[in-house]
Amino acid sequence: MSNTETFEGIYVAMYSAYDEQGEVDAERVKKLARYYAGKGIKGLYVGGSSGEGILQTAEERKLVLEAVMQEIRGELKVIVHVGANSTRESVELSKHAEAHGADAISAVPAIYYRLSEAAVETHWQQMIDSSNLPFIIYNIPQTTGFQLSPKLLEKLAKQPKVIGVKMSGESTFDLQQYKVAGGEDFLVLNGPDEQFLAGRIMGADGGIGGTYGVMPELFCKLNELYLANRVTEAQELQYKINAVIKRLLAYPSLYGAAKYILSLRGVETGQPRLPLLPVREEDHASLAVLNGDILALVAEYGIQ
Ligand SMILES: CC(=O)N[C@@H]([C@@H](O)[C@H](O)[C@H](O)CO)[C@@H](O)CC(=O)C(=O)O
User: Fold this and answer.
1) In the chain, what are the domain boundaries?
2) pLDDT digits over 89-100, tens only?
3) CA–CA separation, 272 and 18 (whole Å)
4) 158 catalytic per annotation
5) How far does the centroid of ligand 1 lie from the alpha carbon of residue 91, in Å?
6) What GO MF annotations does this protein's record show (predicted)?
């Protein structure tokens, strides 16, 4: 099977799961993973932006992955974000991911230092060399300040282990250029949830998204409509999804809002970790309304 066939589809960028004291809670991680296992998605992206990987210690990140693997190994594909600020820690997490049966690893460039392309290449290469897992580049220039060039992507993609890119940059032109630079079997996963359909049309093989976490069924449906060439209906659904995303983004804490919505469905994940703000009590009522609106949309599309 080709890489694109193996990994195409919808991946929830899983939120963190902490207890009431803010510590990683393995049982809550498992419950969250289980919640998604029944939703028709292809897999989970663990420890990425939505998962707060870079706010956690290496030991906590390992605990999260182990809990996920214990719960849904073989049921969902698991791509784990192993990017850390030091190459050493990233390599340690890559090896751990392989030892615990993840399907692929992925990483942002290191942040804080303004790194040259050569430094980022070395950082990624060490992770690639440290395990036998497929590697998916994570490009998110608006947060890392590093813009992946199609030239570097083309160079890295010559290695069989480098199978794709998670493209969280907003330009669908760049997305298409990565697809071209990577070659025929190079996987491109769309990052901006608001542009899932646009990304698909420009060559993405699926998507990884944080807001999928509160409406995975709707993104699966959107993907289905795209695949069935029902573009007008797909556009209509993307608009409805975007109205939800706009409401989520209006809160001071996107992750806090999404995690609160999950709690209303009986899936407790605690608050995001500072400096990401917790959800405000004054927002609870409007989030309950938003939750109801999402569930009504899911029902409108006939999804169980
Ligand atoms: C810049 C950013 O955080 N983008 C998010 C989106 O899911 C984003 O939250 C969504 O499109 C709302 O703007 C994802 O691309 C990141 C992601 O999937 C992850 O690693 O959690």
Assistant:
1) 3-224
2) 999 999 999 999
3) 8
4) no
5) 24
6) N-acetylneuraminate lyase activity
